[in-house]
Amino acid sequence: MSLLPALPATRSLGAGAIPVSPIAWGMWRLAEDGRSATDAVALVHAALDAGITFLDTADIYGFDGSRGFGDAEALLGEVLAAEPGLRARIVLATKGGIRPPLPYDQSTEYIAEAIDASLRRLRLDTIDLWQVHRPDILAHPQEVARALDDAVAAGKVRELGVSNFTMPQIEALACFLGRPLAATQPEISPLRIDCFENGELDQAMRMNLVPLAWSPLGGGRLLAPERARDTAVAAELDRIAAEQGVSRSVAAYGWLMAHPAGIIPIVGSQSAGRIAEAAKALSMRWTRQDWYAVLVAARGERLP
Q1: Is 61 in the active site?
Q2: Extended strands (E) in 113-230
Q3: Residue 15 — pLDDT band, cuts 50, 70, 90?
Q4: Which GO terms describe its molecular function (predicted)?
Q5: Distance (Å, rounded) from C-alpha 268 to C-alpha 140?
Q6: For 19-185, CATH number?
Q7: How many CB atoms lie within 10 A of CB 252?
Q8: What mean pLDDT value characterizes the chain?
Q9: Shortest CA distance to 194 belongs to which of 210, 161, 202?
Q10: Distance between CA atoms of 151 and 159, rounded to whole angstroms?
Q11: Pairwise CA distance, residues 270 & 283, whole Å
Q12: What is the pLDDT of residues 174-218, one digit of tens each?
């Protein structure tokens, strides 16, 4: 039985063709549990040692609803200040545009303010990929595009992306931008498969957007299934994982990565061991039969 193509060593991000690893590490929970800069350094090294060079964070990460936000970025900034050599080894993505308690603000003024604030917290001059975190319905896409183009022209941002945007919202923003968008970040997992059939990934391939999948383990439901559908998907992943000597979570990452759109799953674990384990997905090989078996389990019905 023929195998799907092997995964490339790197993916290409944006017009600048920035090489990124086919799997990313996310820092949503980096600033939780009193984690120190020393602890954070160890996690960054765990990712790099595993070949994961693409790091994703956001200004809202670490926000507990009472203090100002930016904790995860600030902690990563401490790491980069302590080991300046790390900067050249990573491709750094962050997000902005959520402004509690509004909740969203993508006015020209606020986007500029948010990017500058992220740069200060990260202690950097340039962000590799800056993404609009969630769409602001009250912001005209031309206004958003103007602020983003200004940030690129000023050298503060190299590439631009969006997160949680609908397909029409992506098209509208892209229409006004002076450069192509580089990435889109939707929720994708073996338990959230809408994008495989609703055109999102087709749009990504047409527009050369790198899809960054947040919550690739279904918010943890793949690891602790509760519903019949979750259990069925987990069973198919377990079968394939056993055949290839990996864990269920690794198989879930590998399933996403096998799609021709070049999906990059964002590993959310803050455990050095789990981060290193995730990289095993790079060596998985899939047959069409196995890949579709997971999709059928996720659909809960046969393909037409």
Answers
A1: yes
A2: 127-132, 157-163, 183-185, 210-213
A3: confident
A4: oxidoreductase activity
A5: 32
A6: 3.20.20.100
A7: 28
A8: 96
A9: 202
A10: 10
A11: 22
A12: 999 999 999 999 999 999 999 999 999 999 999 999 999 999 999
